[in-house]
Amino acid sequence: MLVDSHCHLDFxxxxxxxxxxxxxxxxxxxxxxxxxxxxPSRLDATLAIARAxxxxxxxxxxxxxxxxxxxxxxxxxxEALAADPKIVGxxxxxxxxxxDHSPRAAQQASFRTHMRAARRTGLPLIVxxxxxxxxxxxxxxxxxxxxxxxxxxxxxxxxxxxxSGGPELARASIELGFYISFSGILxxxxxDALRAIADExxxxxxxxxxxxxxxxxxxxxxxxxxxxxxxHTAAVLAEVKGVGAAEIAERTTANFFALFDKVPAPAAA
Length: 269
Hints:
The protein is of the alpha/beta class. Helices cover 39% and strands 16% of the residues. The protein contains nine helices and eight strands. An eight-stranded parallel sheet has the order 1-2-3-4-5-6-7-8. Strand 5, helix 5 (133-145) and strand 6 form a beta-alpha-beta unit.
């Protein structure tokens, strides 16, 4: 069994065949999917998909691109939304200094809010970071030590999704107890540096994802991505780690259920 730990099933790219896309994922051995909300104003659509499918779950958050428009989200609002049984993570949140669609100060403030909500709910934090390695590490360390997270707040835990950063970001994230999730980028011809980082990530900290409809892996590169294609990324990750595809599937799936512990595992898993 494989898991697609990060996809966007609510996006218009899937509008005309969403059920077929989910069925193809099942046929490819993908037993759990997490569809990610990028702005709370669209959460109803995301949750409707998750509620319609026993094997689909959701996360709620404000993508850094939307931090300026939806930056008024509060810790308490995220806590309330996260009480839904289908919500299994907080995010995606984080920093994107490549596009800078929102001011960096707004991105950082939103990131802090999400970290506090993650600690207070006990749910994993789903982190987007691009061209912002240093600030991401600094804020994660701040969030892990944050004394304002609230009474009874647990430790900060989560995943750096669609990892494309440098080795220091990987090392620091692992030291903080985070997981590293690899997408189709891992399969690209020019991703030798990323594969070298993947080789160094401990087996008990690895996840795989599609980030679909984006970043389709080789041999599907250039086409719309979908959750079934996570198998291609897992196959390359197995080659990088020098193990069989079955072992990577087993390890990444076990890691998923360890982190996203609100998701019920199938009896066979």
